[in-house]
Amino acid sequence: EAAVGMWSIAVGRTFEAELPNTSVGIVSAVNRIWGKALQTDAKISPVNYGGPLVDIRGRVLGVLVPLSPTETDDESGAEWYDSGIGFAVPMEHILRMLPRWKAGADLKAGLIGIRFRGQNIYADPPLLAHARAGSPAYKAGLRKGDLIGAVEGKPVDLQVQVMEAIQSRYAGDTLRLTLARTDAATNKTESFDRELTLIDHLDPYQRPFLGFLPERLPSMDRNGVGVRFVYDKSPAQEKGLAVGDRITAVGDVPVSQREQLALAVAESEPGKPLTLHVERGEQKL
After folding, report:
1. What long-range pairs does 64-69 form, CB within 8 A, spacing at least 24?
2. Is the distance from CB of 161 to CB of 178 less than 8 angstroms?
3. Going edge to edge, which strands form the sheet with 189-197?
4. Other CB atoms within 10 Å distance of the CB of residue 64
5. 214-226 residue pLDDT tens
6. Which pTM was predicted?
């Protein structure tokens, strides 16, 4: 197992197979690139990529690859050429993934569909600002305002700790989160666990279209949000919604302002029936 400070030799091929090029350095860090890479200060360039990083006894530590801590495009890692910062995927990681490759599976980055509140991942707590509709997080019941307290039973305090746990896994892997949710009405906090299966892509967000316009100003003497216009041949019209109706709730979420109505509709899951409660009765759109 690689350890910081041990000798590392980057091996590559420039021209002929019998004349490999080598660069000597040390293992300068482990668990880089979200826990997936060794770091070496041996000089690394494209002639090394795909070659081994070996120790002084010739044991393979990993496979040299172009990687970047922040970018994922085809040229990511180019900025590190011959800079004293190079990366290798650890051999134990490769051996662990071999059964998947032998079965014909590709390894793709795993996603769960969350966004945190705050701008500093190294200082801010893992408080959810959004769970993308239709994502594994949303389907598991994660919602805005939830606080992630542990990942796989290990306590976390910062956003970066959660991100590292996600980034070190692949699509198809599972992740168990422990969350805390505070009820705004009672101020009581509930703790619960959720297990998610990571996916390789998130479908583009489609803004829900029901086909009506809410009133511009809230009514001071009536509940809900009034309907001031209904589009022709829209889902709202097909279900009988009419000008003058008042929407009092979306599902089990009460609404009294157009902003609340818009948020409740936006947080609904695409493709699923949406129940609007109106003063004339109940309409399913």
Report:
1. 64/10, 64/12, 64/88, 65/37, 65/89, 67/32, 67/33, 67/36, 67/37, 68/33, 69/32, 69/33
2. no
3. 154-155, 147-151, 174-182, 189-197
4. 28
5. 998 877 778 899 9
6. 0.68
